[in-house]
Fold this sequence. Notes:
By secondary structure, the chain is α+β, with helices and mostly antiparallel strands. It has 14 helices and eleven strands.
Amino acid sequence: MKISIKAARMALAALLLCSCFGQAYAQTLDSDQAVDLAQAVSEQDYNKLQVWKYMEAYSTSENQSVAAELLATNHERIRSEFHNMRHHALGSELMDAAQPLRLAIQNRRDSVDIVMAEEDMVAVRYRIQGVHQGNLYGIPATGKEIDIDSSAIFWMEDGKIAKSWFMADEAALLRQIGQPLPQRDDGRWEAGPVYLPVMTGDEHIAGLLANPEDSQPYRNKLMINAYKSENPPGGLLPPPAEYGLGTRRGFANITEGATPENAAQYPFGGAFPDRVDLIANMMSDGKWVMILFRLTATNTESLLGIPALGNEVSAYEIGFMEFDGEDWAYRWFFGDDLGMLMQLGGSMDYWFAN
Length: 354
């Protein structure tokens, strides 16, 4: 039976009333009051609750039943969690040996700490924990525990998940289990393809300025957009010292894997003189701003000691920023380190010299 968003929101309002005030109170409401309360549950909040339910079941035995309930019939998985590892294994003996993820990563537990929504999009930050107990895209079981960062974006239609995009920290997983990405018999070495349309930061901010809003979340989004623009309008950026507390840098595995000498002599930024960050998505929700972009550049200088091969890179990076009023209080970035290293042509020896 198909249920409308309005009916679903009314049901959600009733559920919230029962949980907060008890069944007896909810039954005293007349129909007009019920409609008013349902309208107080925004479509964005409803979408967040749907995604939260989906993520709660994602790594459990209830995954298939919840997915059947919440995924649209034409659902499109744009990017999988272990996108590069899976793409590297496809069509080879590595995939032939691979086991389903539920067997390769056992005792899996996903913990969500950020869920935010704007219009038809929902963004999630979560962690994947588990034990490498089976063949993971050609890597035999090591018995080692993993604990990695992950992010996902969902596009909703009529309360269902129409599209989904995931990115797990594959580089951190490999480092934690102490295993490089295995070689294919045919020698192919190719990062997973990138998707999603993008635009320059200047193009994106022009669209925001063309549709102004009198709200702090809008102004927060403008500031983060300006941070990723080549020519931001004056007055939008704070001084660099006021960019908030950073708890993770983009492409942290690559930067942390460098020796202090290489980090000083061949800094990350110097490897990409023509770097341009292209924005795929942005959203603001309360005190949070999310930005998904692609670092695009040609690697013409050594990157932290990795010799430059002149290859082009286009690697995703996602950021979650928290604001305290109008002050940028917190920043967290997560880049596709494994995809970048594979595009650069860098050897896995960068992480696994021994």
